[in-house]
Design the sequence.
């Protein structure tokens, strides 16, 4: 039996999902470019493992946590004080050469998840996930993964960055974990370790050769990036924003979107992966003459660190606040005693040429 596939191909990489008769699609390949035509259905080639459930639970972009999947969850939610265990039985998949859109709904709870995978200029893959409450009661969202990915068994090393004040962006190279490796930010900004991201290298990967996967979360707040060893011999990479407890409550009819994740997959080493990342980021920047995207917030480093809200009549708040437009100048910040103004990686706004006070 030939598998029904949903595929995206860049010049260097392929992303292959198998569409199942019921439930969400399952992962078949993420790595170097392949020809997936004629691939046999997973049910034909895969048998149940020892000490497993009666029915097979292969890895899916939206795995059924609490229903036989023991890895990282894609969704954690509560309703009326009890944990929800959604069963996404109603699933539709729309695909073309540039994008895959997965819509999954749980009729019992009214939760609907939409996952969008898009091929970006330069060859990177963009992952987005949103959750809607189609039910009659409010739902509290504790976690919605931006992406859950399979990493190949050939993966050998993880490269990331950590740091502290005056010692920022210290590179860390670690072997693949035998259990789990977690990076979680709790500062409200990415911190001294730079953007939330990780680079995964195959055994022979270097600057210009070998398979490299590079993930960056397009988010400047608290985040979580986890790599966990799976019982089947590969790893699962998960990434997403970390909301505070009770921060996201969806009333009936409301939706929330997780931040986008950018994944580069290159057989030309770290330089090839970075070229894809740079191309994807450049493509989303609004250049002069193009309408600007909405600004999320602007952190200010000073004495102490503050941020500014543009609500009429409001005063500086210690908590980052949404800004409708880039409208606060460096001279204004100097008036508040700010020592340095920095913008998070995913704030977009017109280019400015700040005049830095010398006194």
Sequence:
């Amino acid at each position: 039996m030939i598998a029904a596939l949903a595929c995206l191909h860049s010049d260097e990489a392929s992303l292959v999902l198998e569409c199942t008769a019921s439930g969400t699609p399952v992962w078949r390949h993420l790595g170097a470019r392949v020809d997936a035509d004629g691939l046999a259905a997973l049910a034909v080639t895969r048998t149940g493992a020892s000490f497993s459930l009666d029915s097979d639970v292969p890895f899916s972009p939206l795995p059924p946590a609490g229903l036989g999947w023991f890895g990282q969850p894609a969704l954690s939610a509560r309703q009326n004080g009890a944990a929800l265990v959604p069963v996404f039985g109603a699933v539709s998949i729309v695909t073309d050469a540039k994008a895959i859109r997965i819509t999954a709904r749980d009729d019992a709870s009214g939760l609907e998840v939409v996952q969008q995978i898009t091929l970006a200029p330069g060859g990177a893959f963009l992952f987005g996930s949103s959750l809607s409450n189609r039910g009659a009661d409010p739902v509290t969202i504790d976690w919605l993964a931006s992406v859950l990915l399979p990493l190949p068994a050939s993966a050998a090393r993880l490269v990331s960055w950590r740091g502290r004040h005056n010692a920022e962006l210290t590179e860390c190279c670690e072997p693949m974990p035998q259990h789990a490796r977690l990076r979680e930010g709790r500062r409200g900004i990415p911190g001294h370790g730079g953007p939330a991201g990780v680079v995964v290298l195959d055994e022979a990967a270097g600057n210009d050769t070998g398979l490299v996967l590079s993930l960056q979360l397009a988010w400047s707040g608290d985040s979580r990036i986890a790599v966990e060893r799976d019982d089947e011999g590969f790893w699962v990479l998960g990434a997403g924003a970390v909301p505070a407890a009770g921060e996201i409550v969806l009333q009936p009819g409301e939706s929330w979107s997780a931040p986008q994740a950018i994944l580069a997959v290159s057989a030309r080493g770290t330089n090839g992966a970075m070229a894809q990342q740079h191309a994807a980021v450049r493509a989303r920047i609004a250049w002069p003459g193009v309408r600007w995207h909405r600004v999320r917030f602007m952190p200010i480093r000073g004495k102490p660190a503050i941020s500014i809200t543009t609500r009429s009549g409001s005063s500086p708040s210690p908590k980052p606040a949404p800004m409708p437009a880039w409208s606060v100048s460096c001279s204004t910040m100097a008036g508040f005693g700010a020592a340095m103004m920095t913008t998070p990686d995913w704030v977009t706004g017109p280019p400015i040429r700040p005049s830095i006070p010398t006194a």
Observations:
- Residues 308 and 328 are 8 Å apart (CA to CA).
- The radius of gyration is 22 Å.
